[in-house]
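Handout, section B. The chain below has 437 residues.
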Amino acid sequence: MPHSNIGHRDVLRIALPMILSNLSVPLVGMVDTAVMGHLPKTLWLAAVAVAGSLFALLFVAFNFLRMSATGTTARAWGAGDMAASGRALAQGLVLAVLIGVTLIVLGPLLGGSGLPLIGAEGDITREARVYFDIRIWSAPFVLGNYVLVGWFLGMQNARAPLVVMLSNNLLNLSLDLWLVLGQGMHADGVAWASLVAEMASFSLASWIAIRYLDAARLIRRNPRLFPTAELRALLKVNSDLFVRTLALVGVLTAFTALGARLGEGILAANALLMNLQTLLAFGLDGFAHAAEALVGRALGRRDAAMFRRVLLLTLQWSGGIALLYVLGFAAFGKELVGLLTSIPEVRATAENYLGWMQLSPLVAVWAFWLDGVFIGAGWSRMMRNRMLLSAFGFLAGWYLLRGWGNQGLWLSLMLFFLLRGVTLGVGLIQHRGLRPI
C-alpha cells in the first residue's frame, strides 16, 4: 500500500478499539471490590485487594510478551512475510507457556513471600493465599493472551483484542456475581471467576486467530519454527523490555511508597490522583498501540516515507487527546475527585495537587507516543537504557526536591515522564535509516 493511503482512519481503526478495551479493564476491579464490599466482613475485601495487587505487579512485569509480539509481527506483516508472522506467534506462545508454568511451580514461594511484602497479615494473609493459590493457575492463559493480543495488533487487527478483552471482563463480572452472591463463596469465588474467564478468553482468542487470521496455516508454512538466530533475537528483545518494564513498575511503586512516608492523607490523595493518571493512560495508550502496529508495518516495508507519515499522524492524535485531557482535568478535576471520594480531608488534599494532573498530559504524551514508536520499530535496547536513565532521574529528582514534600514528589514524577520523552526523542532524531538501534 502506498504511504499516501495511510491516513487518520488507519490510526483510529487501531486506537479506538484499544481505548475501549482499556476502559473495560477497571470495570472488573470495581466489580470485585463492590462484590466483596457487600459481604459482612471486610476481611474478604482486604484479602482480594492485597492478592489482586500482587497479581497486578506479577503480570504487568511480563507485558513485554505483548509488546514484542506486536512489533515483530507488524514488521513481518509489512514485509509481506506471513511465515514470519506465524513464527512470531508460535515463539511467543511457547515462551508464554514456559513462563506461566514456571510461575505456577514457584507459586508457593511467590505467594508466601509476596503477600506479606504487600502488607497482608493474619486472617487476611490466609484468605489472600486462598485467592492466590487458585488464580496462579491462570498464569499461562494470561500470558498467552498477552501474546495473542500483541499478534492481533501486529496483524493490524484491533477488533479481535476488543472482542477478547470485553468477553473476558464480562464473563469475569458475571461469574463474580454468581459465585459470590449466588453460591455463597468469598475470595475463592472471585479467584475462580478470574481463572475461568482467562481460560475462556484465551480459547476465544485462539479460535479467532485460527478461524479468521489463518494462524494455523501461517505456522505450518514454516519448515523451522525456532531458528537459532531468531530465538536469540527474541530473548534479547524480551529481556530488554522486561528490564524496561521492571524499571517503570519500580518508579510507580517508589512514588506510592515515598508518598506513604509523607502521611496517610498524602498517600490517600496520591492514590486517588493516580486513578486520574490511569485514566490518562487509557487514551494515550490507544494511540501508542496504533503507533506500534503502523510503525512496525512501515519498517517491515522499509518505506521511509510511510514511516514519517505514521509518525506525523500518530503524534497529531496523541497530542490532540493530551490536550483534551488537559481541558477535561481543568474543567472537571474537582468533580472527578468528588466522584472518587466523599472524605472531606482526602478530597481537599487531592484538590491541592490537581495542577499536576493538568500538566501531566502535556509532559507524559511524548513518552507514551515514543514508546509505541520504539516498540513497533523493535528498538528495545534504547528503550531499556532510556527507561533506566529516566528512573535514575526520578530518584535523583526526589533526593534533591524531598524538602518540597508532596509537591517535590509530583515534580519528580513529571521529571521522569519528561526524561523519557526527551531521551527517546533524541534517539529518534539520531536514527538513520530503517534499521534497529
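Note. The chain has a mean pLDDT of 89. Compare this with the example in section A.
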